[in-house]
Amino acid sequence: MRSLPLTPIAGSAAAAGAPGTTADAPAATSAAARRAAMPPRHLADLDLAARSALLAELGEPAFRAKQVSQHYFGRLVRDPSGMTDLPARSREHIAAALMPPLLTPLRELACDGGATRKALWRLHDGSLVESVLMGYPDRVTVCISSQAGCGMACPFCATGQAGLTRNLSTAEIVDQAVYMAGAVANEPMPTSPPRLSHVVFMGMGEPLANYSRVVAAVRRLTAPAPEGLGLSQRHITVSTVGLVPAMHKLADEGLQVTLALSLHAPDDDLRDELVPVNQRWKVAEVLDAAWRYADRTGRRVSIEYAMIRDVNDQPWRADLLGSLLRGRSTHVNLIPLNPTPGSRWDASPKPVEREFVRRLRAAGVSTTVRDTRGREIDGACGQLAAAEVVS
Ligand code: SAH
Known about the structure:
The structure is a single chain. 34% of the residues lie in helices and 17% in strands. The protein has 13 helices and twelve strands. The strands form two sheets. The chain has a ten-stranded mixed beta sheet. Strands 5-6 form a two-stranded antiparallel sheet. α13 links the parallel β11 and β12. It starts with 12 loop residues before the first helix and ends in a 22-residue tail after the last strand. Bound molecules: S-adenosyl-L-homocysteine. The site of S-adenosyl-L-homocysteine (SAH) has 18 residues, from β8 and β10. S-adenosyl-L-homocysteine (SAH) is lined by residues 152, 154, 156-157, 202, 206, 239-241, 262, 304, 306, 335, 337-338, 340, 381-382.
């Protein structure tokens, strides 16, 4: 095994994992500074009742909240100037009170013949985040960010190298999906349905470290229009490094979303290095939380495993992983390691990967290798660092 350097990063896994910290507070900055950096309120932060109450305070008629929500979530109109059936004065009110611009597009890139598109956003405080849209024959998926940066410090992930800037607001999370839903509707992908159907929280950040806003975003994405975007809960995947208390909390939300666990190693020695939060919650504990999630929700848990040459891809690790997962309600997604700037590691060779798959399947564990989208535009797993425009 190659030894992996671990750079301690402020607000990192160790802080998030410290006993007594809440799932929402892993940032290094003070609570006041964090709040100061949050964006202004947006309608996607609020449920329909709260939107109605706010507009009533502004003297708008009762039906206005539904009307505006229908524009935003139903017709995917994100700019109030496009809501031409509203009186001009109401548009002004609403723009000021409920629809501040949250995401400024800095760059959009496409690859895979237009089937993968990445958007780079600047947020109101200058933070940069990214979203990636992926078209498949049967569905269109958007991969969205839940934090600017990430505090989990996984050494093979580009986002993990920069540390955490801040949590995104609920609306900053939702608006990425609404924007991409509009982009698909206006300009469908070459061989995919013309509608956004799936959302994965696999962009920048650790979703369960921004727990309450991520859960609110899931509710908004899945509430029927005009309250929300009307996606199926089963078409949403929340991916985590394994913040055990937050996994338990999510299991009790009464949601039907898929949970993906970034395992990357079946043994604590290696996982302590690859996923530093493992120093706080060990493999056995994190898998117990995953099985409890499966029991409570009836949803099969995905196990993510980046295949890193000579690091975590040995046959004995495949067998150990197989023995841990055998008989469980789970599916393994192997992810060929994507290159990240300055990283010394590569993806496992194909024959090694095939042997790993063979051993897992022999143990009765459902296993697939994830198709790696967006490599050329640094849009693939672990490549989202938003570093290119920081000059
Ligand atoms: N913080 C969350 C979600 C973001 S990353 C999590 O860790 O689960 C989504 C997936 O991409 C995770 O499984 C992550 O470990 C994986 N990943 C990160 N860097 C990668 C890389 N360079 N190559 C392949 N997968 C990577």
